[in-house]
Each structure stands twice: as C-alpha cells, then as structure tokens.
Write a structure and sequence with these properties.
The protein is mostly helical and 368 residues long. It folds into two domains: 222 residues, Orthogonal Bundle (Hypothetical protein af1432); 73 residues, no CATH class. The protein has 17 helices and two strands. A hairpin with a 2-residue loop joins strand 1 and strand 2. Helix 5 packs antiparallel against helix 9 and helix 13 runs antiparallel to helix 14.
C-alpha cells in the first residue's frame, strides 16, 4: 500500500515476469502491435446509406465487412512479435470466462511462447527447390531429380506441361520441366506445398482449406503487382498463422471446447503475428517474414521498402473480394484498393485477376 493512500498498490499482471524473461538479453523491443495503427474497417454501403450496427449484427459472418480489416500488423521480427503477441494473449486469457476458452488460450500461449515453435516443418522438397532455383541456373537433371521425390509435384508438372497450350504432350519429365521453365516450376512447387500435411487441421479442415486457397490466389495476384519470389512466398503464407489457432482449438471428445467466435476472432486478429513466428521457424527470408507481419499496415504501403507487403495486401484484398463476390456479397475491397496510399492501384484489374485465379484453385483432396 502506498503511504498516505487509502488504496492498495495496484498489482502487476501475473504474466509480466514471463514477458521480461522473453526480453532478457535481446535488443529493445519495437512498439507492441496494439500501438500500431489499425486498418480501418470497411463497410459496404447499403441503399439507404451506411449499414447500421443492427444491420451488421444480422449479417452472416463476414458478409458486408472487409474480412482483412481485423488483422493486426506485427513487427517483422520473431523476437519482437513474440512478446507483443503473448501480452495480448495473456490479457485475453484474463478476460476469459469459460474453462474451454481458458484452456484454448493456454494452448496458444504455450505454442507461441516457445522459442522452438512446435509446428510441422515446411515441406523439405519445396525448400530445396526454392534454394536451388534462387541460385543461378541449375542443371535440368538436378531439378528433375528433386521434382521426382514429390509425387504431387510430378503430377502438377505433368498437367501443366501437357495442357492445351502445347501442341503435344511431354514425353519425359525432363522435357516437361524444360518446356515450362524454371520460374513456372518454382511457382508450381511453392503452390504444391499448400497441400502438405501442415495444412490439415482436424475439426477445422474447412477453415484450413480456405487459408490454403486464399494464399494461392493472393500470391498469384501479389506477384503480378510486385514480381519476385519473396512476394509470391509472402502471399502464400500471409494467413498461415490461422492454422496454429485452429490447431490449438482442437479438443478430445469430452473436453470443453472454446467458443467458435473466440477461435475465429483470435485467428483474424493475430494471424500476422503468429505468421511471423512460423515464417521465421521455416527459415524464410527477412523480406518474407516482414511482409507476413506488415501486410495489413496500409499506412506504410506508400514507402518503397514496403513494396512486398503492399503487394500482399493487394493480393489478399483482391482474393477476398473475388471470393465474396462469388457468394453474392460486397466486402468493400474495390474501394479499399482504390484508396490505398501511394501509387494508384488498378483495383478492377487485380480483382479480375483474382477471379481467374480462383477458377484455377484445385478443390481439397479427399484425405485432407
């Protein structure tokens, strides 16, 4: 108690010592994610004007709202993102009222708090292919040998190389690789990794499939906005943090389950921070890790050094907008792109490209 004061001294939250431990011996932590500017939520205007709170409450989940607007940007450094994320998760845990919600948040805290993230490895063939094709022009025999190790990758290369674009089918895998070119092989390889076991989450497979498909479409658009391998990878992985949230929500029969609304809110708000941890654990380049965390932060997109994050934002918004339009809904994506700071964006062009990309997304396989 403070001398002369009738009020007890406020106690620090019980989780602050852990945050201090995480920061020991590290560089000063950049501002926490909550202090970063939040993207404005876009609401589609109704015929009578802006939708009222009552109107929004009556809409199906995600309808009429920008699905990307709740994502909280994160520092593009795992050592900075982890304490910021944990502080928010502990605060959420303190507010939880049900046993299922508290257990779910404890699992998230345990996973995100570990310096050795307990998450499946990024497919090794995809990583080796990425490394091989980023460093010069490797012999075609080496690329073919690597492609052969992954049956799903072989299937995709054969399909692409034997399509209607070509007068005849490729006779050998080497011919298929040479016909498509290394850049196409790289994109096929990175896209194929989205079907790996890491994208299978029991009990939330529909949500995981959507993360996978949205990443493929967003990457397809983003790499056209700002060409480059880092842009494509950041687009593919921009929503991967949601998978850890869905996995933490899985419970055994008889155990209390968290509220679905809490699970989806944690996935929406915190997937950039968790995505930074996952991309870092998968040894992605600093440019990819940074863009996975910063893509929701529109205010930085006018700066040239954030070109990759800007392209991912355009890809994400275009992918969501095309998906919502197919369901007969307007999520405000067109105006979000038109009003993006910096160089003007050809919003209609990128949304049209996203529609084309959705047409090419394969449905999930039976086992997934």
């Amino acid at each position: 108690m403070i001398a002369g004061s009738p009020h007890p001294t406020p106690r620090a939250p019980w989780w602050q010592p852990l945050l201090r431990w995480l920061r020991v011996g590290r560089d000063p932590v950049p501002p926490l994610a909550p202090s970063l500017p939040r993207p404005e939520r876009q609401v589609a205007a109704a015929d009578s004007g802006q939708a009222s709170p009552a109107d929004l409450a009556a809409l199906p989940e995600g309808a009429g709202l920008a699905p990307w607007a709740d994502a909280r940007p994160a520092p593009g450094d795992a050592n900075a993102s982890r304490p910021a994320l944990l502080e928010q998760l502990y605060a959420e845990h303190d507010r939880a009222t049900s046993e299922g919600d508290r257990a779910f948040l404890q699992r998230m805290i345990r996973e995100c708090g570990s310096r050795k993230l307990d998450f499946p490895l990024f497919p090794d063939v995809a990583l080796e292919l990425d490394s091989m094709l980023r460093h010069g022009e490797p012999p075609a025999a080496d690329v073919v040998r690597l492609v052969r190790r992954e049956p799903d990758l072989v299937r995709r290369v054969w399909q692409q190389a034997s399509g209607a674009t070509f007068a005849r089918r490729a006779e050998t895998l080497e011919e298929a690789v040479l016909r498509l070119g290394y850049q196409s092989i790289w994109r096929i390889g990175m896209g194929a990794c989205m079907n790996a076991p890491v994208f299978r989450v029991r009990g939330f497979q529909g949500e995981a499939n959507h993360v996978r498909a949205l990443g493929i479409v967003a990457a397809d658009v983003a790499v056209r906005v700002h060409p480059g391998g880092d842009t494509y990878m950041a687009g593919l992985l921009h929503g991967v943090g949601k998978l850890l949230v869905y996995r933490a929500a899985v419970v055994r029969p008889g155990q209390p389950a968290p509220e679905a609304s809490l699970v989806h809110r944690m996935a929406l708000e915190h997937h950039p921070s968790i995505g930074v941890l996952i991309a870092d654990a998968w040894s992605m380049s600093p440019e990819v890790v940074g863009a996975v965390g910063a893509w929701p932060l529109r205010q930085l997109h006018a700066q040239p050094e954030h070109a990759v994050a800007r392209a991912v934002y355009v890809g994400c918004v275009a992918a969501h907008t095309a998906a919502e339009a197919r369901a007969g809904r307007d999520c405000g994506g067109l105006m979000a792109l038109v009003n993006l700071p910096g160089q003007p964006v050809d919003a209609a062009r990128w949304i049209a490209r996203a529609h084309e990309a959705w047409d090419g997304v394969e449905p999930p396989s039976e086992e997934s």
